[in-house]
């Protein structure tokens, strides 16, 4: 019954998966760096790199879906 939950991509671990920016496609080497932003839209997590997050910070703080940016 108790199934192990997969590790969160932002958590470092032996099998940390690379994370892709949902806006520009930038790839982080292993896990999401602390400067990236995570957003939950329509029930799925989306990660945005430092540059995309900074360029759209007002929309992010206004909780607009990324489709509006």
Question: Can you tell me about this structure?
Answer:
The protein is of the alpha+beta class. It has helices at residues 50-55, 57-61, and strands at 19-20, 27-28, 37-41, 44-48. The strands form two sheets. It has a two-stranded antiparallel sheet with strand order 1-2. Strands 3-4 form a two-stranded antiparallel ribbon. The radius of gyration is 13 Å and the shape is globular. The termini are far apart.
- Net shape: globular
Strand order in the largest sheet: 1-2
Mean pLDDT: 80
Approximate strand percentage = 15-25%
- Radius of gyration, whole Å: 13 Å
Biggest sheet descriptor: 2 strands, antiparallel
The overall strand count is 4
Tell me the structural class.
Answer: alpha+beta
Helix proportion range = 10-25%
Distance between the termini: 42 Å
Number of helices: 2
Written as H for each helix and E for each strand, in order along the chain, the element string is EEEEHH
* Uncertain residue segments: none
Summarize the entry for a quick read:
By secondary structure, the protein is an alpha+beta fold. Helices cover 16% and strands 20% of the residues.
Key words describing this protein structure:
single chain, 69 residues, alpha+beta, two-stranded antiparallel ribbon, 2 helices
List the helices and strands and how they pair.
Layout (H helix, E strand, L loop, with lengths): L18 E2 L6 E2 L8 E5 L2 E5 L1 H6 L1 H5 L8
Antiparallel strand pairs: 1-2, 3-4
């Amino acid at each position: 019954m108790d199934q192990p939950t997969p590790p969160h991509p932002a958590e470092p671990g032996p099998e940390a998966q690379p994370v892709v920016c949902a806006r520009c496609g930038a790839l982080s080497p292993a896990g999401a760096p602390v400067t990236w932003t995570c957003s939950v839209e329509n029930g799925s997590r989306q990660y945005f790199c430092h540059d995309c997050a900074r360029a759209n910070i007002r929309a992010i703080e206004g909780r607009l879906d990324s489709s509006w940016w």
